[in-house]
């Protein structure tokens, strides 16, 4: 990382920790800012407190709010990434990568053997991230996502075995 980035805070590493109910406001904001249909605060709180869910949040040093989150749901020995989001001002700093690494480690402790996700086929940065962690395409869902303008987008279903 260059001198400019270090001087102006881009080298600050996020603190990654398990989500807690008090993070629901931040998670709802981040989800709404990243996706066409955001989750409400009560929906986020329910997911965070659900015993079948595993979630982590990222916070940059000196900031009071989360700059990212990852939420997964566990069923038997499988899990699915429900959502992962990073605040616009915090992108391209490795935050999603750090959260996904922590999430995979935590799910491994929970004895998860396979991790699934769906990602919009045109989301190249996300596809690159998932492939970095060993996810492979296992299917496609045409017209799966509905966009704000009424159009649809294809989803790629991916899996990573532990």
Question: What does this 3D model show about the protein?
Answer:
- Strand 6 (136-146) and strand 7 (152-161) form a beta hairpin.
- The model is unreliable at 1-7 (pLDDT under 50).
- The chain has a 7-stranded mixed sheet, with helices on both faces.
- The chain is built from 5 helices and 7 strands.
- The chain has a domain at 3-114: 3-Layer(aba) Sandwich (Aminopeptidase), CATH 3.40.630.
- With 162 residues, the protein is α+β, with helices and mostly antiparallel strands.
Brief characterization of the structure:
With 162 residues, this protein is an alpha+beta fold.
pLDDT averaged over residues: 92
Q: How are the strands of the largest sheet arranged? A: 1-2-3-4-5-7-6
What is CATH's topology name of the domain at 3-114? Aminopeptidase
**Helix fraction bin:** 25-40%
Main β sheet profile: 7 strands, mixed
Q: SSE order, as H and E?
A: HEHHEEEHEHEE
CATH class placement of the domain at 3-114: Alpha Beta
Radius of gyration: 16 Å
Counting H and I runs of at least 4 residues, what is the number of helices?
5
SSE class: alpha+beta
Query: Stretches where pLDDT falls below 50 for ≥5 residues?
Result: 1-7
The CATH homologous superfamily of the domain at 3-114 is named Gcn5-related N-acetyltransferase (GNAT)
User: Which term fits the overall shape?
Assistant: globular
Instruction: Label the CATH architecture of the domain at 3-114.
Output: 3-Layer(aba) Sandwich
| Proportion of residues in extended strands | 25-35%
Q: Terminal Cα separation, in Å?
A: 32 Å
What is the number of E strands? 7
